[in-house]
Amino acid sequence: MWLRGIFGGVFFIFLLCSCTALFVLHSLYFIFRTASQTEKTETKTVHDDQLFIPALIICNRMPFSQDGLNNVNVNLRQDSALRYLLEWTNPSLREAADYTPPAADFMNQGQNTVLQYITQSTRNQTIQNMQYQCQSVINSCSYQGIQLSSFDCCRNLLSLIPSVNGLCWVWRDSTMWQNSTGINRQFSITFQMTRNSWFSTFVPTHPGVDVYLREDGSDVMRMATELENPIRLQDKRGVRLQMRKTKKADIRRTSCGYALGDARRSDVHAFKNNHTNYLMCNMMVAMRYCNCHPLMAELLHYDPSSFRDFLLRVSQTNVCSVDAYDNCARRYIDLTRVENWDEDIPKDLPGYEDAKRCRNDNQRSCLITSYPGTIEGYDLPEEYRTTQDYVSRLVLEYSTMRTTEILVSKDPNIYELLSFIGYNMALWFTVGHILWSMFWYATGLCCPKRTTNRIMPIVSRKRSVSSPEPIIVEHRPSQSEEAGNAGET
């Protein structure tokens, strides 16, 4: 009997240690997956009752008209000054694969001319005056067969925004929506600029117009660095986009919640509480360590009373030249672009801790809406191909009323990790309990308990007071009674 107890104790300790070790090893797999930053993508489609035509971010790659330049100073029409203006206002030009850097003397001459006639005190207004007017760019637009004139179409122009992709306009008509698909639901916009307004020896052919699609055009700060996937419109060509609406939520960041709806509410809350100033914060760091401010800092629209420190820093520093931007400020601005959000901040960057604090204190968009689809290019009608003006057309139509929702999350997330650990604990300790029960039952069969003769106490039956046993009384007759009985006999 004592051997059974010893073996049972040893087996119990062995079983407990084994189940604990297996539980830990099984759980470590999911813990290491979480620590290695693995991710998963979930995709689903939902039907929408109505879809709106997205906002158009129109970026003219030649934003300055000859008349606008003449109104400031005729010297700005020189090739060197015009080349410097274009690269100054559009930093993405130097990122093109076919970019050829000009001679240093050529750019220095252009810089001197530009800074001579575009001073800091009036720079913002001067650059706006040099640009095209809306009706000089947009010829017409139509929706569901209804033709709108240039004037009516330009009434939907919301604002002018600077961006890392150049000077752009925000165009949006909130009344344009559709509840079904088809060629009769198309939206088209035609651009036309007269040849005399842009032609020069430096620009013999118009470089085209880039159009970006956005769900909303209200957050200027985000649009400055979050423009992706341009639709480039070349001269005498049209582009038709059969698009579908796609929403992508990145919930790997805890501030974005755990679902697509949480990501949307998080972005709205950040915008209302002024927590979307990642670009402005990084420009403040650039001003501190580059001793100049990007041109974009002067052109952004913001409330001066809410950003007094930013306004003061801009007024106390000079604007960055094209070379100064490339050599210093570009590194800080590029950190705010969508493609660099998940990149580590270089530790050799001056002001590394300040740049890291900007990323932590300001929310990057949790939900990004895009409009991918099939792009078809075609030649414009003969009436447009015979003119020397720049003419192009963009046609948009939804190919489906279903919206694709993409959710990017950690794999596993915190809830799945806790669930896996709980399942592992239940699994292995349940197995241990089953093995322990089988062991104890088996030892009971092969080593039965020894029976012994024990003296058991006699348990007396209790009698109830309420029902006592009857008392039997023996009756003996007297002598007189016996004699009487004998006489009768």
From TrEMBL:
Q: Which UniProt keywords apply?
A: Glycoprotein, Ion channel, Ion transport, Membrane, Sodium, Sodium channel, Sodium transport, Transmembrane, Transmembrane helix, Transport
Q: Which family does it belong to?
A: Belongs to the amiloride-sensitive sodium channel (TC 1.A.6) family.
Does the record's keyword annotation contain Endoplasmic reticulum? no
Tell me the name of the encoding gene. del-3
A molecular function (GO) held by this record is: ligand-gated sodium channel activity
Chain ranges passing through the membrane: 6-32, 420-442
Compartments, record wording: Membrane
The GO annotation for biological process reads: sodium ion transmembrane transport
Pfam families recorded: ASC
Record's keyword annotation contains Nucleotide-binding: no
UniProt organism field: Caenorhabditis briggsae
Query: Domain of life of the organism in this record?
Result: Eukaryota
Q: Where is this region: Disordered?
A: 470-489
Major place of localization? membrane
Q: What is this protein called?
A: Protein CBR-DEL-3
The family database entries (InterPro entries) matched by this protein are listed as:
ENaC
Q: How does it sit in the membrane?
A: Multi-pass membrane protein
> Which Gene Ontology cellular component terms are annotated?
plasma membrane
